[in-house]
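Q: Entry one of two.
A:
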Amino acid sequence: MPGVSLAFLGAAGNVTGSATLLELGGRRLLLDCGLFQERKYLERNWNPFPVEPSSIEAVLLTHAHLDHCGLLPRLVKGGFRGRILCTPATAEIARYVLLDSARLQEEDAEQKRRRHEREGRQGPFPELPLYTEEDAQRTLPLFTGVAYGQSLEPVPGARVSFHDAGHILGSAMIQVEYGDSAGRRTIVFSGDVGRWGKPILRDPTVFDQADYLTMESTYGASLHEDPASIQDLLAEAVLSTRRAGGNLLIPSFALERTQEVLYYLSKLLRAGRIPHVLVFVDSPMAVEVTEVFLHHAELFDEEMRSLMSSGRSPFQFPGLTMVRTVEQSKSINQLRGTAVIIAGSGMCTGGRIKHHLANNIGRRESAILFVGYQAEGTLGREIQEGARNVRIHGQSFRRRARVLRINGFSAHADREELLRWVSGLKSAPRRLFLTHGEPESSQAMASLLAQRKGWQAAVPSYGETAVLDQ
């Protein structure tokens, strides 16, 4: 097929905003359409889409994290009318993710408008939401569920299939095949590569052949802690905070990370390694997503299926409260003693975690436990790196709370796991592109591939186009 190219429209030279445009003989497919979350790239969310949205025939969505699906309402508002193809679980979860994002966009815009009005100044971005709940609602009917392994043809001459990525519930790696029998080509898009031996989900799919490969490299320069240490570190975080008499705040993504934290907390409680403490999941979206998990038990690994069938669900244990209303959320801060508060957003860029931070970050007896990646420029990254003063809801707070971190929770493959995944290929791809990583991580992964396998990998920059077949 002549005229095949990839344009890297996001997550190129940075981590968030995943979007890759695949052109096949003039037909356009978009791989992901994510929100930029690093502060220095936020303006990209407001920019016109690099190509006419109506010219895109389908979106192939790897999973429902906001940095992969969060700009879909903007794409639809701009004129996209094609199908959004993804797994059924992703379609179900994306509904909550996009509606929640839209509500936060509207709330944040209103808060900024009022604050700027009081301060008599204009902010760097429009005092309007990036998109509204109505925009998100118009996006939802475009979702079409595709089972793992099912093959379909979104544009003539291109066969697409989704394969379990082992990253979050419903996450997929996407394989695109095109050309005739004399010149058949395969492109594999890794999406976010999961990890082996993680709880709840199955291991990531490994491919043995790809002519072209785009691979994420978020942790291409680092190794995660041994997952076996998670229970010890989490138990110590709970016990030390309880001894101090404060609250343990866990900023957490509503999707996957929250459910995994609950998995380990329930395991520690049942083993008697931590006392019964009040545990709050203060995120309506996390509550809804947990229900989606229960709808898709077919995606669980063997251990998780055994736990569920024996009545030991990690999502139900004494002391656990799923918080839905604002009133319930506010009442948490009136409690005495120690509570574990799991709330979004995972990078502290919005949501209820910011209210809990405002109430606890100045308390020496409280602790903030990070269990996920904190992108450059986010509030979470500032706190994690030891900032003594931070701004929350327009006010300055002195940080006195302890800052803790557990890296082993990551749902992303680390350096060696990425190498393990790509080593499933029996031969080097014609072209290999490293995306979804900060420059040092992507370059480190490229060096590792050259050193260990003798493969050359390109690290595309934002907006770069690579021609695959003439």
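Q: Entry two of two.
A:
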Amino acid sequence: MSEIGSLAIRAFAGGLFVAAFAVLGEILVPKRFAGIMSAAPSVAIANLLLIALTKGHHYGMREAEGMIVGAVAFLVATFAGRWLVGTFGALRGSAGLCGVWLLVAVAGYFVVFR
């Protein structure tokens, strides 16, 4: 697939999924879910679609596994961050949160991909 074709598919799929997730965010109550339904999930889905079309489903599966590892690390860091920021303040708690995310993501990488 050409570079232009790949870019066109990515733009179309990304726009389609962004619009779908925006509608879902508007429908859900409470409205704070709208942030969860913003660009990140739609861009991830669009990229997975493009990868599956251009490089095959096996490569897409590996990319999806990497996204899952990152999401689990983000979830763990979110719960740890709530405690860290409450205990150590915003600056030190946020730095600790980044460290937790990095440790969990690297550990997840070695568990899943090794």
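A: Comment on entry two: The CA atoms of residues 10 and 74 lie 25 Å apart. Residues 57-88 form the longest helix (32 residues).
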